[in-house]
């Protein structure tokens, strides 16, 4: 009688364990948490000249043309300004603009293109660190009966954070795999 009760108990225990494993397999424990945006401007652990060089390389890799470079001799602050970059055209324009910009609440416009201009402000904080600020100005082109018109939009900070993370990654020896033009 003891053997039958023990066998019955073992069978029930195995059945419960199998049900538990099935239930646990359906739970997602490793869901990635969204990253908090970096402070803008951020302190980067590299000299001002190194950060300028890394930023230029990053812009070149991402095909973001440099328009102006202005460095003040007295303060050491450098400003890198990109040329205007059209990053989206066509059907997906509105969704991409919504991702990167604050859009008007009531919007019946048809968006045809999106573009941005980046400004990097790099200032020496100490001899071995630099303060880097990234600022983007977004515009969307609307299709209207009278022709296209560029409308200035307010950035959500997504592109700026991506650029800061890329600079930080390159300073640490990474290659910044995030893709964005």
Question: How do you describe this structure in short?
Answer:
Helix content is 34%, strand content 33%. The chain is of the alpha+beta class.
Topology:
Elements: H1 2-26, E1 42-44, H2 48-61, E2 66-71, E3 78-82, E4 85-89, H3 93-100, E5 101-102, E6 110-126, E7 129-143, E8 149-155, H4 158-171
Antiparallel strand pairs: 1-7, 2-3, 3-6, 4-6, 5-8, 6-7, 7-8
Helix pairs in contact: 2-4
Q: State the assembly state of the protein chains.
A: single chain
Counting structural domains, the number is: 1
Mean pLDDT, as a whole number? 85
Q: Largest sheet, if any?
A: 8 strands, antiparallel
**CATH topology title:** TATA-Binding Protein
CATH class membership: Alpha Beta
Low-confidence stretches: none
Structural class: alpha+beta
Compressed to H and E, one letter per element, the order equals: HEHEEEHEEEEH
Question: What percent strand?
Answer: 25-35%
Helix content: 25-40%
Q: Given the C-alpha coordinates, what overall shape results?
A: flat
What is the terminal separation in angstroms? 75 Å
Helix count, per DSSP?
A: 4
* Structure summary, number of beta strands: 8
| Name of the CATH architecture | 2-Layer Sandwich
Task: Output the radius of gyration.
Answer: 26 Å
